[in-house]
């Protein structure tokens, strides 16, 4: 009886972990798709197509119940590399938010930052 309760609890915990991995992989794929192609070259990272293929395969592996745990772990590594290395470099090169568009400061005027009339 206790073993069944523990197994059910562990099963629900693992389903939440797999759901989190799926959400992470979909976020990474969508974020990579929204970034500009030239930002990848300027950041000296692999091409946009490369990252879309890798992150897309990661999302597919997380959706399909293949039972191949090493593919899930490999996909997690790809997602982490994208989030920790590639995405910050794309943001630095692109200047900010989605698609590489720069968010202006509150002191920015129509021709650039306002410097107090100096």
SSE layout:
Layout lengths: L1 H33 L2 H6 L5 H16 L5 H26 L13 E2 L2 E2 L5
Helix pairs in contact: 1-3, 1-4, 3-4
Task: Characterise the protein shown here.
The chain crosses the membrane at residues 12-30, 50-78. Keywords: Membrane, Transmembrane, Transmembrane helix. It comes from Streptomyces glaucosporus. Residues 95-118 are annotated as: Disordered. It holds the Pfam family DUF2516. With 118 residues, the protein is mainly alpha-helical. The protein has one domain (2-100). Helix content is 69%, strand content 3%. It contains four helices and two strands, in the order H-H-H-H-E-E. The protein has helices at 2-34, 37-42, 48-63, 69-94, and strands at residues 108-109, 112-113. Strands 1-2 form a two-stranded antiparallel sheet. The longest helix has 33 residues, at 2-34. The radius of gyration is 20 Å and the shape is elongated.
Offer a few descriptive terms.
two-stranded antiparallel ribbon
User: Largest beta sheet, briefly?
Assistant: 2 strands, antiparallel
Task: Determine Rg (CA atoms, Å).
Answer: 20 Å
Please indicate the percent range of residues in DSSP E strands (runs of 2 or more).
under 5%
Shape: elongated
For the termini, the CA-CA separation is 77 Å
Q: Count of helical segments? A: 4
Mean model confidence by pLDDT: 81
Q: How many domain modules?
A: 1
Q: Segments where pLDDT lies below 50 for 5+ residues? A: none
Oligomer: single chain
- Strand arrangement within the widest β-sheet reads 1-2
What's the count of strands? 2
Helix content: 55-70%
In terms of structural class, how would the helical and strand content be classed?
Answer: mainly alpha
Order of helices and strands: HHHHEE
């Amino acid at each position: 009886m206790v073993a069944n309760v523990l197994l059910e609890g562990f099963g629900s915990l693992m389903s939440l972990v797999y759901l989190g991995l799926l959400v992470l992989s979909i976020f990474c794929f969508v974020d990579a798709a929204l970034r500009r192609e030239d930002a990848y070259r300027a950041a000296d990272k692999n091409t946009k197509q490369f990252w879309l293929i890798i992150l897309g395969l990661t999302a597919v592996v997380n959706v399909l119940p293949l039972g191949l745990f090493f593919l899930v772990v490999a996909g997690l590594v790809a997602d982490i590399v994208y989030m920790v290395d590639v995405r910050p470099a794309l943001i630095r090169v692109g200047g900010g938010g989605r698609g590489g568009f720069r968010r202006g400061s509150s002191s920015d005027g129509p021709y650039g930052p306002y410097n107090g009339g100096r």
